[in-house]
Write a structure and sequence with these properties.
The complex is a heterodimer of chains A (557) and B (52). Chain A is α+β, with helices and mostly antiparallel strands and 557 residues long. Chain A has two domains: 375 residues, no CATH class; 123 residues, no CATH class. Chain A has 23 helices and eleven strands. Chain A has a five-stranded mixed sheet with strand order 6-3-9-11-10, with helices on one face. Chain A is globular and about 85 Å long. Chain B is mainly alpha-helical and 52 residues long. Chain B contains two helices and no strands. The longest helix of chain B has 28 residues. Chain B is rod-shaped. Classes of the chains: A alpha+beta (557), B mainly alpha (52). At the A-B interface, α13, α17, β4 and β7 of A face α1 and α2 of B. Chain A: Keywords: Membrane, Transmembrane, Transmembrane helix. Chain A: This is Membrane protein YfhO. Chain B: It comes from Asanoa iriomotensis.
Chain lengths: 557, 52
């Protein structure tokens, strides 16, 4: 029977959440915050496919953005990506909730798409990670379908895992989800195919990491710097229990410090406890595994704090690639999914009991209250996190500099030598240096990160060499870079000795470009990056095969 | 009787949500001392990835 309300309500709820959160993006320009950098047209370079000297933190994400930029301008691409992330996160959860009741789906959508985790990671600009957040409900639904043998489910699993696997963290979460939830007796072929496909989607960043010259071991100081932190009197565990607790105090919505937030979190968890029992009856073969996955993600989120910190410090200094575990709160996604799922079902159970004792309206009141609870706890996610997502325009200097570099390609050194900058034209908001994305040339950037008074060393050996040259006040011309890009703003003077031997070719209000005329060679070609190219092609083939499988499944009666 | 009970449920839940919402909004518009301290030392030349 056609039930328009039941069909449309999840879509309308998802659209409403998206519109309310991203409202400021109707203004022209680019939202530039921390790791979120979009430019008018991002060139596709070898550095995007496999960084030569840095760890592949945005592989294959950057290459995909560059490809999409061929068809869609950067400002539109940013809006499409952010809108799709919020919309599909809410819709995915609304569809995943095992219920016949529309209002319960609405509760699930709000409980998953209006969370501290989403707000904090959005304010940190980690939209790649949020793609994994949006994809996870779809991935869990696809895994459930594979286990029950629904046609086309394996293809849907691949398509759901693909957006998650565009970053290493998202790829690991997707792989762990499939490894834990998928294995089924009698369906070993589907299990092997599913796990193999998701592993293949992770190959681009795995191979890029193996071929990079960056050391895989990380600075142990990053463990404390990026550990989960308390947001109110409930401590770190309380913050994480409410899906908050990000390491950076600058990206925490102000409402998280409210004295009543822990109380509201307790209420939320109490409803979850009610819902967990009901979920075990509705999804008997999967919920225990999901709970196990969520528990592991919670433990990982806590790992950087005492007493797990020494073990994690040993791990990041010993095991190549283990530095990925330093910011453990980002792995909280499966926990956030279980909380939203059990909260929606728990609210429905309570509503059902109350409807039995009083009347149906009383039950509806409970569900409406449950739907509003996430919004009431976190009111400052609305309107671009209370105005923090503000589009700005790039100064014309960026186009001028980009044109000059494109005319004579060569490696660029960006000064001041900080990976993250605070530009006047961006309201003083910290953002990753746009140079590697704006300029059609490899850009030598500092991958050391300053967290308060602590500097967490990076893994790029060339960046360390540049820092040593700068610290000694020696000319950067000796580093062999073709261009030196300098911020030309008051208070940011670069010592004359550092720029000696270079010729100024452009000076604007915000940027200056200096040329090293002794370097004329073009930047190196693909070199040892061919294995990474092969991994990208293989991942693309897996996605295409997955899409074909979905289409085939739909054609079957 | 059922209508009165429903009204009471709605009133109790509405009041609870209202109080939580007011506290959360006050927290949102009145940043903690940590936030104020962060902003007061803001310097364009001093770029940090974040603070704890």
């Amino acid at each position: 029977m056609w039930r328009p309300t039941a069909r449309l309500a999840p879509h309308l709820t998802s659209a409403a959440i998206t519109a309310v959160v991203l409202a400021p993006l109707v203004a022209p320009g680019y939202v530039l915050r921390y790791d979120m950098v979009f430019v008018p047209r991002q060139p596709l370079s070898w550095e995007m496919v496999a960084p030569a000297d840095a760890l592949p933190r945005a592989v294959p994400l950057d290459a995909l953005v560059s490809l999409a930029n061929l068809a869609v301008p950067g400002w539109l691409l940013q809006r499409l990506v952010l809108v799709a992330t919020l919309y599909f996160a809410a819709l995915g959860m609304a569809r995943l909730v095992p219920t016949e009741r529309t209002l319960t789906r609405v509760v699930g959508a709000l409980a998953y798409a209006w969370t501290p985790f989403l707000a904090e990671r959005l304010l940190l600009g980690q939209w790649g990670l949020l793609l994994a957040y949006a994809a996870l409900p779809w991935l869990v639904a696809a895994v459930r379908d594979v286990r029950t043998g629904r046609p086309g489910a394996l293809g849907r699993l691949v398509l759901a895992a693909a957006p998650a696997a565009v970053t290493p963290t998202g790829g690991l979460i997707a792989l762990a989800t499939v490894l834990v939830l998928l294995p089924t007796k009698g369906r070993w072929r589907a299990t092997v195919l599913g796990v193999g496909a998701v592993a293949a989607l992770c190959l681009p960043w795995v191979v890029a990491a193996l071929t990079s010259a960056a050391g895989g071991r990380s600075d142990p100081e990053g463990v404390a710097a990026f550990a989960a932190r308390a947001e109110n009197w409930s401590g770190t565990v309380g913050a994480l229990a409410g899906t908050g607790g990000i390491w950076n105090a600058q990206t925490v919505p102000g409402s998280r410090s409210s004295a009543l937030v822990p109380v509201a979190t307790l209420v939320l968890l109490a409803v979850c406890a009610v819902g967990f029992g009901a979920l075990r009856r509705r999804w008997p073969d999967g919920i225990a595994r999901l709970a196990w996955l969520a528990a592991c993600s919670f433990v990982l989120a806590l790992a950087g704090t005492a007493p797990g910190a020494p073990a994690l410090e040993w791990l990041v200094t010993t095991v190549p690639g283990a530095g990925l575990l330093r910011d453990g709160q980002k792995f909280l996604i499966p926990y956030a999914l279980l909380v939203a799922l059990s909260f929606a079902v728990g609210a429905e159970s309570l509503a059902h009991r109350l409807a039995g004792r009083i009347d149906a309206n009383a039950g509806r009141v409970v569900l409406v209250a449950a739907a509003l609870l996430p919004v009431v706890i976190l009111p400052d996610l609305a309107v671009g996190a209370a105005g923090q997502l503000r589009p700005v325009r790039y100064p014309a200097d960026w186009d001028a500099v980009s044109a000059r570099v494109a005319a004579a390609p060569g490696e660029v050194l960006s000064l001041p030598f900080d990976g993250y900058q605070r530009y006047r034209w961006n309201h003083g908001q910290v953002v990753r240096d746009p140079a590697p994305r704006y300029l059609d040339a490899p850009v030598l950037m500092n991958d050391a990160l300053r967290v308060g008074a602590v500097t967490v060393d990076g893994e790029n050996p060339r960046a360390a060499k540049v820092q040593a040259v700068l610290d000694a006040g020696q000319p950067v011309a000796s580093l062999g870079v073709r261009w030196v890009l300098v911020r030309a703003e008051p208070g940011l003077d670069v010592p004359a000795t550092v720029l000696s031997g270079l010729r100024p070719v452009y000076t604007g209000n915000y940027l200056a470009l200096w040329e090293n005329t002794e370097i004329t060679a073009a930047p190196p070609g693909p070199g040892r990056r061919w294995p990474a190219v092969g991994a990208h092609v293989l991942a693309a083939l897996v996605v295409i095969i997955g899409a074909c499988a979905v289409l085939r499944g739909r054609r079957k009666p | 009787m059922a209508k009165l009970a429903t009204f009471i449920v709605a009133a109790v839940l509405g009041a609870a949500l209202g109080i939580i919402g007011i506290f959360a909004t006050v927290g949102a518009v009145s940043p903690s001392a940590d936030h104020v301290a962060d902003q007061s030392v803001e310097d364009p030349a001093m770029t940090v990835y974040g603070t704890r």
